[in-house]
Specification:
Elements lengths: L2 H26 L8 E5 L5 H9 L4 E4 L2 H14 L4 E4 L8 H7 L2 E5 L2 H14 L5 E5 L12 H14 L4 E6 L8 H13 L4 E3 L6 H6 L4 E4 L1 H4 L3
Parallel strand pairs: 1-2, 1-8, 2-3, 3-4, 4-5, 5-6, 6-7
This protein binds pyridoxal-5'-phosphate (PLP).
Cofactor: pyridoxal 5'-phosphate
Pfam family, one: Ala_racemase_N
GO molecular function: pyridoxal phosphate binding
Length: about 230
């Protein structure tokens, strides 16, 4: 087999395995597999790796950089118009116009300046994008996200004052900690704010996230290999 065939075989097989594991985790939690959406995280991987996933029916993808997504996705969208692209990385306010034009869902809303820029841009482009608020559940200094303590007020600001379509919450637990308490905390904050979408769980911990109510799992390495 040539390299391209190898990539195709690998990605197709990994994707099938991940989907089976998601279904298994959902069933183990007494949940419906259809209630967990797989966001395939394709950052750093090129079209050769992404196309096999698209061919296998995967349409929801995550990217963490605006510029990289702008370069990769218009051509893929032309082939698969039903693609749903999620921004899962930090967003600078000055990149908001490009982000709104490139992505269907913004998962990394984490500060007031960005919230205001998004609201302005939605009006300007005459569009709307579902937004998730990123919560820094571990309170890590270097990590993006609203602190758990500030989240209720921030949701209120975004939803009530700015009219943003806030649908849920997203978190990335600290690397060296047991993730389950972070997932449980995210679920608790969402519940008390009437939010039903929970983006949590990556290649190493998605089963635990599903057990704790994840509606979206963001999985890269387990599908596309290491970066
Ligand atoms: C890269 C990334 C992922 C995917 O991580 P894997 O461990 O490769 O599955 C998920 N969420 C965010 C925010 C990421 O940046």
């Amino acid at each position: 087999m040539n390299d391209l065939d190898l990539t195709t075989t690998k990605v197709t097989g990994n994707l099938a395995q991940v989907k089976t594991a998601i279904a298994k985790a959902a069933h183990a939690a007494g949940r419906n597999a259809d209630d967990v959406t797989l966001v395939a995280v394709s950052k750093t991987h090129d079209a050769d790796a992404i196309l096999p996933a698209l061919k296998a029916g995967q349409l929801v993808f995550g990217e963490n950089r605006v510029q990289e997504a702008q370069a990769k996705w218009p051509a893929l969208r032309a082939l698969y118009p039903a693609i749903e692209l999620h921004l899962i990385g930090p967003l600078q306010s000055n990149k908001v116009p490009e982000a709104v034009a490139t992505f269907d869902v913004i998962e990394s809303l984490d500060r007031e300046k960005l919230a205001r820029a998004l609201a302005t841009e939605f009006t300007k482009q005459g569009v709307s994008r579902p937004c998730y608020i990123q919560v820094n559940t571990g309170g890590e200094d270097q990590k993006a996200g609203v602190t758990p303590r500030a989240t209720d007020a921030f949701i209120k600001l975004c939803r009530d004052d700015l009219g943003l379509p806030v649908v849920g919450l997203m978190c990335i637990p600290p690397v060296h900690e047991e993730p389950a308490p972070h997932f449980a905390l995210l679920r608790k904050i969402a519940a008390r704010n009437g939010l039903t979408t929970l983006s949590m769980g990556m290649s190493g911990d998605f089963e635990s996230a599903i057990a704790l109510g994840a509606t979206h799992v963001r999985i890269g390495t387990a599908i596309f290999g290491s970066r």
